[in-house]
Amino acid sequence: MFLRYLSVRALLLLLGICLIGPRGLASAAETKEPTKIAVIGGGIGGSAAAYFLRQEFGASVKIDVFEAGTVGGRTATENVKGQDYEIGAAVIHPLNLHLKHFVETLGLSPRAEVKTKMAIFNGKELTFEESDWFIVNFIRMLWRYGFNSYRKFGWVEGILGKFMSVYQYQKFGYAFSSVEQLLRSVDAERFLNQTLEEAMRADGFSQAFINDIVTPNTRTNFGLNAALNAFVGVVSLADGTSGLWSVEGGNKRMSAGLLQLCKAEIIQGRVTGITLKTSKSASQYEVNYSVDSGPSRSLYDIVIIATPLHKGLSDISFSGFSPPIPSHFSGDFQQIVNTLVLGRLNMSYLGTDQRAADFLVSDILTTDNKALPFNSLATVAPVKIPQGYAHPPASANKVWKMFSAQPLSEEQLGEMFESQEGVWVKRWLAYPSYTPPNHRTPPFNLHDHLYYVNAIEWAASCMEMSALSARNAALLAYNRWHGHAHKIDQEDLETRLRTEL
């Protein structure tokens, strides 16, 4: 599904098919391509959008990418004593087909695998500690939860298996104007307004399994218990499977590489407004932005917004649109504080009598205990793995990463660590607060040729979802520009594709 997009456009033109679509769609007979396209945001969503736009519209269109901060967005690293560590989006799933394609196309390499071990902490003691032996883990889970743990893998794979159809739809040029339309095409829309707990209980999973095993996973990935929406919960559980990886040298290398590959011009500036400019011949979008030398503006035929339209993350005003476009969509983004500590763990804090020299657990997940100051605690390896590297025991001075809702105090850190050589803190407005019932998600299509990549975050937030939404935005932009209404929001695509093939 990561093969290059196989187009049927040439065949349609040869057959002389001419389609007139809804407002904003041009005639399919029109051959004029856009001159300039703006992409606002240089994270994985914006860089992927620029890459896919170049594929769709060819070499002649000028693509400008506006980035107020650092290219890479929420993929970022922190330098600790000469080594870089991931502090943003950290892992890639084996089924993340767009990201795999980017890595292969850019000639990047997966980071060398480092063996991990997991434990679960309830605030007083470790309630579960993974063994090096599969049979031991199997018997423990079977004794406590029956076959819940192993049914979970099939349950997640069944949902994601249907979702994978999106890649096939995109391969054949189909796009969606809303998140609901996209999820409806893969029978996943129902999961937006249902909690993960409700969905799993309905399918026979025990409450004990959800509390003890599922919730620690969702707390680590999205800072919430199993009352978050079911779709993002499934994405979180997928991140709990084996085979997760990251990019050697840091995941942010994908964004920088894609922008260079598609020959986009990076404008280091903050976009402040977008104004619709209409004339008898055409409509364009005036992008107003601020750079070091002062305010500036430029006209574009197509604009892709790949930054959250949320207070605290962007402040873009929209002028001349009817109906009006809000500067900020409703809903809250959740703060996550990422704390890196170079130090030695205090074993008594975990309620265990194990010797620190024997404690090789790398990932400590937590149950839903409001008294706990953090969601997860993990040993992290640098983005460049030295040959023969393995996670050292807890008795060694090493880098630990914690996710928490609020900054950790010196007193809290003092309880958790016997010694600290350094502390590095990064606050993120990381992702939406996924508590159903959700309001309607923002549309992908804000205006005739104005598109919003980050609408997908209200279904689930991760690097692959951003890349998938970027591909959708590029296809939507191409189809609407050329009047391909038959490629937008089509029902029963599985049957349609079988007919086309």
Would you mind describing this structure in some detail?
Helix content is 29%, strand content 22%. It has a 7-stranded mixed sheet. It has a 6-stranded mixed sheet with strand order 7-2-1-11-19-18, with helices on one face. It has a 4-stranded mixed sheet with strand order 10-9-8-12, with no helix packed on it. The longest helix is centred in the last third of the chain and has 19 residues, at 463-481. 42% of the residues are buried. It has 14 helices and 19 strands. The radius of gyration is 24 Å and the shape is globular. Helix 5 packs across helix 10 (230-238). The two termini are 15 Å apart.
Helix-strand layout with pairing:
Elements: H1 9-14, E1 36-40, H2 44-57, E2 62-66, E3 77-80, E4 83-86, H3 97-106, E5 118-121, E6 126-129, H4 134-145, H5 148-163, H6 165-171, H7 179-184, H8 196-202, H9 207-222, H10 230-238, H11 253-261, E7 265-267, E8 270-278, E9 283-291, E10 294-300, E11 302-305, E12 317-319, E13 333-345, E14 363-366, E15 376-379, E16 398-404, H12 410-416, E17 417-432, E18 445-447, E19 450-452, H13 463-481, H14 493-500
Parallel strand pairs: 1-2, 1-11, 2-7, 5-14, 8-12, 11-19
Antiparallel strand pairs: 3-4, 5-6, 8-9, 9-10, 13-16, 13-17, 14-15, 15-16, 18-19
Strand content: 15-25%
Helix-residue proportion: 25-40%
The profile of the biggest β sheet is:
7 strands, mixed
Rough outline: globular
The residue-averaged pLDDT reads 89
Task: State the helix count.
Answer: 14
Instruction: Order the strands across the largest sheet as they lie in space.
Output: 6-5-14-15-16-13-17
Low-confidence stretches: 1-24
Rg on CA atoms, Å: 24 Å
Counting helices, strands and paired strands, the structural category is alpha/beta
